[in-house]
Structures are given as C-alpha cells and as structure tokens.
Amino acid sequence: DGLYIIQPKEEPIVVFCNMQDGGWTVIQHITVNSTVDFDRTWQDYKYGFGSVHENHWLGNEYMHQLTGSSVQYILGIKLVNLNAEVKWGQYEPFLIEGEESQYRIRVGLYKGNATDALTLDTEAYLHDNQKFTTKDRDNDNYFMNCAKLELNGIPGGGWWYDACAGANLNRRNVIYWQKDCNKQRPCKFAWMMIKPIEHHQPYPAKACPCQKVEL
Ligand SMILES: [Ca+2]
C-alpha cells in the first residue's frame, strides 16, 4: 500500500494504491465526519480534492483518463461499518465518460457481499448512464438539485444522481450504501477503487529477453 505517481495522460498524478486487497488505484476515500468537505463545485470534482493518503476524491477528469482508455476497468467498493465489518462490491466493466458527456458513469455486472446499490431495482435510483451533478451543475433527474439536498445540515455533495440515488459515498455525515451503510447502520469508512480487467494469459509473459531459437 502507498503512494505512486502514475501518468494516465500528459499530466502525472499521485494516487494511493491498495495492494493488500489486490492491486487497486483508490479514486475515493471517505471517513464519516471527515474534515474534508465533499460539498464542492464542478471544478473541484473535476481535478479532485483532499489528500490522497486520506480522505479524497481523485478527480473526474483523471477517472475518465484512466477508465476511458482501451483497457477496461473494474470498480471496487469497500465499506467498513462501526463494528469493523467489511463489505465488498465490484462492477465490471466501469467507465467514466469525458467532460463533454458530463462525466457520465457506466457500470456493468455486479458481484460482492454488499448490496448492489448502484443498480438498485428502483426506477428513480439507477446509476448506470447518469451524468455527474454538483451543487453548481445540476445534471440529475430530480426537480431540485440532489447535490444540495441536506441530511442533518450536510448536503449530498457531487455524485451520479438519478432522482436521487440508492447510494452516495460523498455525503460527509452519513455514508450511504442502501442497506449496508445508512443512518440506522452507520459506516465509518468507504473506498472506491479501480483496476484493469486482467486478461488471462495462458503462458508466462516474462520469458524475455528471448533466446533466439536455433532450428
Ligand atoms: Ca435536478
């Protein structure tokens, strides 16, 4: 585990890699009642905020640069409740489209022991295909701006809202993941992480530098 410099496009960026759980690049981390404010503008969510070894949002632009390449990615969700019980979920594939598409999210098939909160079977709560919404840019399907809706005085923050959502990991006081994390069952930590989909290699790839075969 630790900090790494990666270069998804021109600009090098610092990311936190979670190696113990299998080699993931962390794109979001929140601790309940974090001092990092997640009630931010479009521009803040675009390039990220917080500190990468603690609570942070990596940035929609970087999420797009990483997942929008020719390599397909998996989204991993890790949730820890107050009893230190860990829940996992993952979506394959996972993709964030570019700013011209308002950083629309695409999520594929789910597996894990957490609730499938991003594709919850409720008409108003689908995440797949939703654009990103912040307090200063309302792209959601609700008559108000979901990012501004408050719970105990804390707004929802930026997210891929529908009208509004069965999950939101960016509300600072209540980490929300449908049945797993909510007001009644509080969670302490959440992470969003990504990694490339591994294509099965039938033969060891690192035999080179290769000896010329004498026939
Ligand atoms: Ca709206």
Automatic annotation (TrEMBL):
Superkingdom per UniProt: Eukaryota
A Pfam family matched in the record: Fibrinogen_C
A GO cellular-component term linked to this record: extracellular space
InterPro entries registered for this protein in UniProt: Fibrinogen-like_C, Fibrinogen_a/b/g_C_1, Fibrinogen_a/b/g_C_dom, Fibrinogen_C-term_domain
Gene3D superfamilies named in the record: Gamma Fibrinogen, chain A, domain 1 (3.90.215.10)
Domain Fibrinogen C-terminal: 1-198
Name this polypeptide is given: Fibrinogen C-terminal domain-containing protein
Naturally occurring in which organism (per UniProt): Catharus ustulatus
